[in-house]
């Protein structure tokens, strides 16, 4: 490597020819070959790599596959060398050649000696900066993960609690209904009901059909009182057990008269109690079925949201991710928040990292609900725009001032109170949309109408060069 090769790199502005000569002597020229790895993620960063010409992809192992997280394609860009200032420094990604060229490879030890000899104060600053930045990032990322996990866990627990509690109540009531059912059968047998009478009673029971519509509470109370009065007039003592299920099934007095004709004498009360018990059991079983179905749907939504049983890159429908995210954030969408969906019927499936996009939807929807302070309209829309899919998350909050919108995608920038935000949400969303999917994300805000607009290509950009190892 010659001094003239290094002089053209802006990275070395301010160094003398003698210093450049020392650097070139301390290092080695290494050729870049497409598809050949120069250094590997997780290995000790024993060398400092400075691009002279060509291009190198930076790849990290994410989930089940290697993912491009950056690229060295401008002469003067560099990677590695961290052990010059931190003995635990490792390569954060694998460097793989994608275009013919060359790099200057300098041992970390040699870089440290040159740095200490030329500007020792700068070396101290770099060591402090590296250590501080690593500590801050680790702490913030950990906190962000814990806060997100805690929020989602609390929301999921809230959503599951309702159907789980309903199922528990129904099962408890079902035990009592079954006991009443068996007791009434025993009393029917003691009353020497005939087979013909029981068959006729069962036929009357089968006439009662489940009602899709439910009477309003006042009408239900009036109907129950009428049935209770009829039962009392016919000598039925346990009317408080029989009347409510019959009223809920909208059984009329004419049906009761027919039942009285079939069940004369001592078998009238246990016969009607048996019918009422079968109705109660059917209703309670329906409640258990609906509650457990709801729990199952929530578990399915969690699996869809986390994408934990699927590969990273998928052919997905963005609507599925939006819907599973709405389920995960359901605890924030009650009461005053109205959700309006406007999903385009012609929106195609896209190739994307589904789990990462769900993080984007979580941040955008959560921010929109917070902006409305729990009351307003949340608008979710999808549409196709050429070879891109557009996803919009809008709210009817007070809007975002221009000076805030201009900085909204900066890391650690937040307008939330202390403890309510980390300033990483929209920065992470931007990275996922722009760097991982080749899309764009923008803000269109005015008082009463704020829209976060995401544009994602149907197919991800084609990688340059070979990607084989």
Keywords, separated by commas or semicolons:
469 residues, alpha+beta, Jelly Rolls, Heat Shock Protein 90, 3 domains, 6-stranded antiparallel sheet, 5-stranded mixed sheet, 21% strand, elongated, disordered C terminus
**Percentage of residues in helical conformation:** 40-55%
Question: What characteristic shape results from the CA principal axes?
Answer: elongated
Poorly predicted ranges: 417-424, 463-469
Mean pLDDT: 82
Order of helices and strands: HHEEEEEEHHHHHHHEHEEHEEHHEE
What is the CATH homologous superfamily assignment of the largest domain?
Histidine kinase-like ATPase, C-terminal domain
Structure report:
There is one protein chain. A hairpin with a 2-residue loop joins strand 3 (47-62) and strand 4. Helix content is 49%, strand content 21%. Mean pLDDT is 82; it is low at 417-424 and 463-469. The protein is α+β, with helices and mostly antiparallel strands. The longest helix has 71 residues, at 120-190. The chain has three domains: 3-118, Jelly Rolls, CATH 2.60.120.10; 160-294, no CATH class; 308-457, Histidine kinase-like ATPase, C-terminal domain (Heat Shock Protein 90, 2-Layer Sandwich), CATH 3.30.565.
